[in-house]
Amino acid sequence: YQQALRTLSEELCIKNDITTSLLTRFPDVLATRHADVDEEQLWEDVSAVTAQALDRFVEMRAAEGAKMKADVENRLNFLEECVGKVETLSAGRVEAYTNRLYEKLKVILEDRNIDDARVLTEAAIFGDKTAVDEETVRLRSHIAQYRSILEQNEPVGRKLDFLTQELNRETNTIGSKCQDLDITRIVVDMKAEIEKIREQIQNLE
Predict the structure, then answer these.
(1) For the residues 49-68, what does the mean pLDDT come to?
(2) Exposure winner among 12, 33, 66, 137, fewest CB in 10 A?
């Protein structure tokens, strides 16, 4: 092609501006040839590399899962300890309220006769409004269920997400019922731990 173009240029007295890109446009100037490939060997090589990569991926996921499980279990232990503290503080709350009520009435009535029945009624009403026994029982149940689900060899992300919401709901209820400063501090700590648990399980299927 190059020689033919050069000859044509000389005969027609036109500029010879042959370029490589021009020559490559002609057929058969460049040709491709498929190399002989052993497809079975190629498949064996690809399969081996893929299997190794998958094994490594599974190992990494298992290691990450074990760390995540240990972290969540530690936080569940902390929550359980907090529930115990709330139960202890709640147990003496009604008695403390009754004593404070007596003291206030003594000041108001100047040590005159105090209606014990009325005081006990007020204390009972207070106890009923601020009782958190049901909430602490449910919290312990949720924590136990959480631990059980963590042992399952199946996707558990949705189950744990639901339980995390329940943990948060019961904790919020305790906070709204109890006006005790010590219990309020415990509730704040519990909510912080539950949020950390929620962040962890977002990575689960």
Answers:
(1) 82
(2) 33
Closest CA to 201 of 172, 168, 171: 168
Query: What does the pLDDT average to over 156-169?
Result: 92
From the list 166, 167, 202, 201, the residue with the least C-alpha distance to 82 is 167
- Angle (nearest 5°) at CA 33 between 30 and 39: 155
Q: Which domain holds residue 101?
A: 68-201
Please indicate, yes or no, if residue 169 is contained in any of the structural domains: yes
Within a domain: 6 = no
85-96 tens-digit pLDDT: 998 887 766 566
Q: Evaluate whether residue 15 is within a structural domain.
A: no
In total, how many domains does the chain have?
A: 1
Instruction: Give the chain's count of helices (H) and strands (E).
Output: 8, 0
CA distance 64 to 144: 23
- Residue with the two structure tokens 């000389």: 10
Query: What's the CA dihedral at 165, 173, 185, 127 to 10 degrees?
Result: -150
The answer on pLDDT for 55 being more than 90 is no
Q: For residue 116, what pLDDT band results from cuts at 50, 70 and 90?
A: low
